[in-house]
Structures are given as structure tokens and as C-alpha cells.
Backbone:
């Protein structure tokens, strides 16, 4: 499995729109040619979120493009996919969602060392507009400090 490039598909918007309280790593149930498309990096997690249905956790708005060499057996690009977590983690997430203003957002998709697709999900609280401005200011200040330290070391 080492011949594949490292796949790291991120949802950059999630860390801007939400304050991440806790992260979990979940497996994903994939069908057909989806794994081949993910290995080629043909996936997007923009606006992805999770929901519970009959005690199972599902992720919505994860787009995995159709495999170019797939035939009539190709997969549906934008479908809901089941996430695999243990029962203790599922119960914890379900209890946390009872709190007002919390959601579960998809943060990152990657291949582990065995070649399996994993998704990092985060228990998140939405940010207000002024929180987003503060977040941008902190990032700019951190970037300026890093740049100053880099030039100072020389």
C-alpha cells in the first residue's frame, strides 16, 4: 500500500465556521469504485456534516467523483455514507448532540497505513461573525510571529 501518495482531503471551511470541541476518527463504508477515486484524490468534503439515523452515524455532502475507468457499475458521487465508530463513541456523540448549538462536522479524509479510508469528524459549535474575525486576527498574528522568528534565526 506504500505506492499510493498520501491522501489528505480537508474541509478547510469547517475550522473557520466551527469551534472544534472534540475529534474522532471513523471508518467509512465504501462501495464499488469509491476507494479507487479516493486513492486518486478525487474527493471533496465541503459542507460535510454527520447525522444519526436509527442509532447509526451517517455523513452527508462528501463527494467522491466517479472513477474514470468505471463502467456501468460506477458509484453515485454524492450519497450518504455510513461511519464506523464503536458503541461507546456513538453514545457519547448522541448525548452531546442533545446540547443546543452542537453539530458533527467532517474535518479530514485520509488513508491509513493499511490503505483504509478514515474520516476525522469533530464535535463542533458554530462561531459568530465576530468570532471569525478574531480567529483571522489570531492567525495573522501567529503568521507574523513565525515569519519574524524565521528571519531572526538567520
Residues:
Amino acid at each position: 500500500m506504500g505506492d499510493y501518495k498520501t491522501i489528505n482531503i480537508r474541509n478547510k471551511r469547517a475550522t473557520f465556521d466551527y469551534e472544534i470541541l472534540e475529534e474522532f476518527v471513523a471508518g467509512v463504508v465504501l462501495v464499488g469504485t469509491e476507494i479507487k477515486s479516493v486513492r486518486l484524490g478525487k474527493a471533496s468534503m465541503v459542507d460535510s456534516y454527520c447525522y444519526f439515523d436509527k442509532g447509526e452515524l451517517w455523513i452527508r455532502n462528501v463527494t467522491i467523483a466517479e472513477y474514470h475507468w468505471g463502467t456501468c457499475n460506477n458509484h453515485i458521487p454524492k450519497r450518504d455514507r455510513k461511519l464506523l465508530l464503536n458503541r461507546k463513541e456513538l453514545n457519547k456523540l448522541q448525548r452531546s448532540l442533545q446540547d443546543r448549538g452542537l453539530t458533527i462536522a467532517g474535518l479530514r479524509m485520509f488513508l491509513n497505513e493499511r490503505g483504509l479510508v478514515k474520516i476525522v469528524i469533530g464535535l463542533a459549535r458554530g462561531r459568530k461573525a465576530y468570532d471569525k474575525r478574531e480567529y483571522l486576527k489570531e492567525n495573522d498574528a501567529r503568521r507574523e510571529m513565525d515569519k519574524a522568528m524565521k528571519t531572526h534565526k538567520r
About this structure: Residues 11 and 107 are 5 Å apart (CA to CA). The mean pLDDT is 86. The first helix runs from residue 12 to 17. The first strand starts at residue 8 and ends at 10.
